[in-house]
Amino acid sequence: MHTRIALVVTVLLVGVVAPFAAPAAAQSGSAVGFGAAETTTTQGDVATIELQVRNTDEAILRVSSADQRYRALVDVRDGNGDGTVRVRFNTFRGPGEDATVGITAADAGDDAELLVESSDQAGAVLDTGRYNMIVSTATTSVAAVLRLEEPGETSSNTSVVALGTPLSAADSPGNASAGAADGESETDASAADAEVRTAAAGDLARTRFGVSGLGGAVEPSPPARNMVFPADSAPNARTTHTLQTTPNETVAVRSLTVDYGADGSTPPADIYRLTQGDIDTLGVDETGDGYVDRSARFAIQNIRTSTDGRMTLIFDRPVIVSANDSLLVAYEVQNPETVGARDVTATLTGETTTYRDSGTVLYGPAGQGTLGHGVDLRLESADQDASPTAPLSALDITYDAPAGDLVADADTGALEPGEYAVRLQTNESAPAELPQVHLSERFEVVEPDAEFATPSVGDEPQLSVTAETNLAPDNTVIVRVDAQETGGGVSQVLNCVATVESDGSIGCEFDLSKSASEFDISVSIRRNDTVIAGPARFS
Fold first, then answer.
1. Which end of the chain has fewer CB atoms within 10 angstroms, the N or the C?
2. Residues 202, 192: contact at Cβ < 8 Å?
């Protein structure tokens, strides 16, 4: 049995054994309850348990499996005073005997803290089945049920949506790919769906991987978002570390210092031996796609290292890193004999400006794969020979718990035209209890455009403009009409804000001061600051 318990809580348990078995009768005064009599979630995902409190701001939540092999005691506080505390209960414990479930409060101001956990369950996720829950104060208690179900079949699909489209919005049938059927591998998916989804630059290519049971493992911030990401996070592994730092102002960098020993952190075992031959990549990502657009490896003049975890690259010329561009460095080192997050800092020393950044590097099982615990998600270009140096730069990642989907939104505005693949897999370092998947979805980025329907100009002052576009539905564009009276005289410039319909059509109606046939008319369509159609002459 594995038990995690603090000394002050040990005394508390002696007096609360009975409530684990049966709830006490409700009494006057403070009152507590559950938002639902039964909460169901997938094994490995995060359950949200809603508690209600009255005349008190503190309660105890007890969770125990039906066979009593798992027990947890959670202290909850209604810090914002709304009478509700939503507890996020992560059913992924992680590997190792000291692993525990993650407990947090869902709402700002509230608090939920795991006081005690004991388990005879051997896996990295809690077992499926029924878990009894009791929420109580000193005078009252109420019971409910948490039920964990096995993960379902896997699937994937890609749709193209406008920027800002919420996850709850239904995918447009015209813009959604058929995707992979349940349980298909990457190879099967490619064969099943030969059509590659097309996305106009600036839209979102939204890929949904229907893989319930991954939510808990990918709950924390992805390791690949850390300042330093090891390709292999195992202790003592010889591997590639990728550093990414994005200054908020332009820096003409003359030296880069990376300090792994910040705040007493354990540095890589051989950082002091780093040579220029160990540096695989050094350059600037100017678009946000994770690839180096401008290499600076040739500018390295000297490398200084120390046994306390610092390395400094000195350049023989300024390396210009503009505001919001990213400096990317990939180099070979040996991980230290440690697990967990360790502090690291980066200093870009310029001719007139110095930029300092701080972050972490994560070692051990939690750091394996771009999303952690052996779960790896990447966006790759079919036109590039290598994977991006920073694999998640162009992706916004969300776990849609109600749908059981891992959602990857690719910002196509950061991507060059061409074909891309979003790949999700659990590698051999992932706990056996996690869903084993190898899924891939493809899409192609093209320039945005629109094509006018055959113009019809009559004797009426009304002018109708229609067009077809490759922009995703719900995008807004500006249709501009420039009407010059034939032979001089009246001049009119009219603008109309139009929304792209589900079938890709755009339509606007204009009222001219005279018959439309008396004007030389040109029409254009603009999205943001880019003209995507026209000017076209209507006559």
1. N
2. no
Identity (one letter) of the amino acid at 113?
Answer: E
By DSSP bridging, strand 197-200 and strand 438-446 are: parallel
Residue type, 309: G
Strand partners, 159: 176, 206
3-class secondary-structure state, position 354: strand
Q: Give Cβ neighbours of residue 290 (< 8 Å, ≥ 6 apart).
A: 328, 379, 388, 389, 390, 391, 392, 393, 394
Residue 487, exposed/middle/buried by CB under 10 A (0-12, 13-18, 19+)?
Answer: exposed
* 201-245 pLDDT tens trace: 999 999 999 999 999 999 878 999 999 999 999 999 999 999 999
Please report the pLDDT score of residue 176 as a whole number. 52
- Taking the CB of residue 461, how many other CB atoms lie within 10 A of it? 15
Element (H, E) at 18: helix 17-21
* Residue 194's pLDDT band (cuts 50, 70, 90): low
Are the C-beta atoms of 338 and 302 separated by less than 8 Å?
Answer: no
Terminal CA-CA length for the chain: 84
Compute CA distances 482 → 467, 516, 522, 523, 534, whole Å.
17, 12, 5, 6, 11
Nearest CA to 176 among 162, 158, 154? Answer: 158
Range picked from 316-330, 441-455, 516-530 for highest mean pLDDT:
316-330
The position carrying tokens 């990642």 is 397
Count helices and strands (H / E) in the chain: 3, 36
Q: What SS3 string covers 395-445? A: EEEEEECCCCEEEEEEEHHHCCCEEEEEEEEECCCCCCCCCCCEEEEEEEE
Residue 353 sits at the vertex; the CA angle it makes with 304 and 343, to the nearest 5 degrees, is 55
Q: How confident is the model at residue 188, as a pLDDT?
A: 42
Query: For residues 497 and 399, what is the distance between their CA atoms, to the nearest angstrom?
Result: 34
The per-residue pLDDT for 360 is 95
Do residues 124 and 153 touch, judged by C-beta distance below 8 A?
no
Q: Are 108 and 80 in contact (CB under 8 A)?
A: yes
Strands (DSSP E) along 293-433, which ranges?
294-295, 300-305, 310-321, 326-334, 340-350, 354-363, 375-381, 395-400, 405-411, 418-426
Amino acid in the structure at residue 222: P
Determine the Cα–Cα distance for residues 423 and 308; give it in Å rounded to an integer: 38
Instruction: Answer yes or no: are the C-beta atoms of 310 and 302 closer than 8 Å.
Output: no
pTM: 0.84
Q: How many CB atoms lie within 10 A of CB 56?
A: 17
CA 79 vs. chain centroid, Å, equals 28
